[in-house]
Amino acid sequence: MSKSVDLGLNVFDHQLLDSEDRRCGKVDDLELEGGPGEEFEVVAILCGPGVWRGRAGVLGRIAAWLGGGGRVRVPWSEVAEIHSHVQLGKRAEELALGSGDDRLRPYIEKIPGSDH
Amino acid sequence: MKIFQVALGILAAIGGFVDIGDLVFNVAAGATFGYQLLWVVVIGVVGIIVYSEMCGRVAAVSGKAVFDAVRERLGFKVGLVALISAQVVNLMTLTAEIGGVAICLQLLSGLSYRWMILVAGVAFAIVVWVTPFEWVERVFGYGGLCMLVFAVAAVKLHPSWGAVAHGFVPHMDTQSPLLYAYFAIGLLGAAMTPYEVYFYSSGGVEERWGPKDLGLNRVNAQIGYGLGGFLSFSLMIVGGALFLEKGVQPEFLGSIALGVEVPLGQIGLLLALVGILFAVGGASIDTLFSGAYNLAQFLGWEWGRYRHPRGAPRFTVTWLVLLVLALGAVMTGVDPVQLTEYAVIFSAVALPLTYIPIFLVANDRSYMREYTNGRLGNVLGLVYLVVIMVIALTAVPLMILTNVGQN
Amino acid sequence: MVGRMVETESGRRIGRCRDMRAIAGRGTLRVTELVVGRRGRLEHFGIGTPRGQAPDAVPWDSVVRIEGSRIVVRDGTELV
């Protein structure tokens, strides 16, 4: 993976897929380390309603509140590849992603017919 | 065999391309202005063909549905605004459509409206939950074919075909230009309702369309919506030939169906009610899922109409919640036909937030590779963006000035 | 970073920062350039020549400091 990527164009707000191609959120923000005169690197992906606060003014804060304010930090080392989405090298549960779906699934499964 | 499948798909689609907004506005426009607004319907149909082909192409080439692309290309803030406006309009539309279904059930069964609302809601939930979605689409599509009875009725009412032909020529020849403009906006808003493109593009992604399916996409868009346009013409002609003559404003779905009884008798009435039931019912499901798609795609959740519910729990809960909200809203006793007018007008206001992102993404070379809009596509696309901006800006003022079409 | 004006130490304006370009490192993504200028904005909407085909960025190494609403780069920095 030696090609260059443009963060805003190719990474921000893109779909996250886990190692089994399961959709598990979007790149809501990136954590960068460093500054002028030194290495400037992306060290982690940040996801979750808590992350939206800074990205859309008042609406973002309301959305963050509605969503429960949780946030998940995925170290960049977990990223396997960047295509039109961001592919992760592990399963979503291992990275604490997609927990909303996992928490609701038991209730859904109780209803007959959810598995056709 | 492939041709057979395409034909089936198109047949199923015809019924699905007329929803309560088209029904109400086309008949009302006919009842008020006769055949004079037929040319506006043509503009609306071409518009939805152009843009659904664009969406379908985005889905096929980039593998992304509209709201995925909107957030990626335009960012979180713009995407959030687009999402909120889409959800508000969607919920209004869904409420109106479920109300319409309940009215049809009431007319067909004679049972109370309130109970029919519950029946409609529960029936939708069960059908969607238990039945594979392909079957759902087929059932509602074929049932919606009964709407063709309006085309038969239109012919049987012996309209002055010369006047009908004249209606296809753009002109404005009336004492009430504001009301005319209001209906024009309504017809365009109803033809290009946002949920249609969201639903269509999500389907394309789920069916894993690729560049080889671009021809199929074009055929689907052109023939499907083209035939839907044909049904819209029929509705307006029935409105003009029957209601205008008698000076009647069809304010109830029942009156619209009666428009078929006059030339075709009881059988016609029955077919009309069944057709409306399935067309509006199918549209309800499309609208419902659109709402869930938009949220799930914006937030990156799992989603899909062809998957079993446990594969996409949050998506499933979303459409269940939307359904319950809409049922609650219908239960408040709001008049579905009146609500339809508001829903269409507000859809019209939201059109730019729907179609501008699609246009931008369809031109984005990093998404679309060599399949970006061609020159004709861009010319048409831009022309319609201008039309859409005009519609969006004038919709609410016209609604106010004409007192929601009452004048 | 994005949205700030990029200027040289002597005050010459190069353009607004539109994006950051990075390449893969050891478990991280290292920022190599700042995408700058009007071309960047149009391209973001998919109009015009695709990114990276014409000079549109300044190297990260040329950034001296970031102050307030400006990104200051060394004198003599040109778009690459």
Structure overview:
The complex is a heterotrimer of chains A (116), B (407) and C (80). With 116 residues, chain A is of the alpha+beta class. Chain A is built from 3 helices and 8 strands. Chain B has helices at residues 2-16, 20-33, 38-62, 66-109, 113-130, 133-144, 148-156, 161-167, 177-191, 194-206, 214-246, 253-299, 313-331, 336-362, 365-368, 375-401. Chain B is globular, with a radius of gyration of 20 Å. Chain B has a single domain, classed as Up-down Bundle (Amino acid/polyamine transporter I). Chain B starts with a helix and ends in a 6-residue tail after the last helix. The model of chain B has no long low-confidence stretch (mean pLDDT 89). With 407 residues, chain B is an all-alpha fold. Chain B has 16 helices and no strands. In chain B, α1 runs parallel beside α11 (214-246) and α2 (20-33) packs across α12. With 80 residues, chain C is mainly beta. Chain C has one domain (5-73): Roll (SH3 type barrels). The two termini of chain C are 19 Å apart. Chain A binds chain B through residues 9, 12-16, 22-26, 28, 47, 52, 55-57, 59-60, 63, 84, 98, 100-102, 104-105, 107-109, 111, 113-116, and chain B through 62-64, 68, 71-72, 75-77, 79-81, 84, 129-130, 132, 299-303, 308-310, 312-314, 316-317, 366-367.
State the assembly state of the protein chains.
heterotrimer
Distance between the termini of chain C: 19 Å
Mean pLDDT of chain B: 89
Cα separation of the termini of chain B: 53 Å
Q: Main β-sheet of chain B, in a few words?
A: none
Order of helices and strands of chain B: HHHHHHHHHHHHHHHH
Q: Which CATH architecture of chain B?
A: Up-down Bundle
Main sheet overview of chain C: 6 strands, mixed
CATH architecture of chain C: Roll
What's the CATH first level of chain B? Mainly Alpha
What layout of secondary structure does this protein have?
The complex is a heterotrimer of chains A (116), B (407) and C (80).
Chain A: E1 4-6, H1 7-11, E2 15-17, E3 23-26, E4 29-34, E5 40-47, H2 57-67, E6 72-75, E7 79-82, E8 86-88, H3 99-110
Parallel strand pairs in A: 2-8
Antiparallel strand pairs in A: 2-3, 4-5, 5-6, 7-8
Chain B: H1 2-16, H2 20-33, H3 38-62, H4 66-109, H5 113-130, H6 133-144, H7 148-156, H8 161-167, H9 177-191, H10 194-206, H11 214-246, H12 253-299, H13 313-331, H14 336-362, H15 365-368, H16 375-401
Chain C: E1 5-8, E2 13-24, E3 29-36, H1 38-44, E4 57-59, E5 63-67, E6 70-73
Parallel strand pairs in C: 1-6
Antiparallel strand pairs in C: 1-2, 2-3, 3-4, 5-6
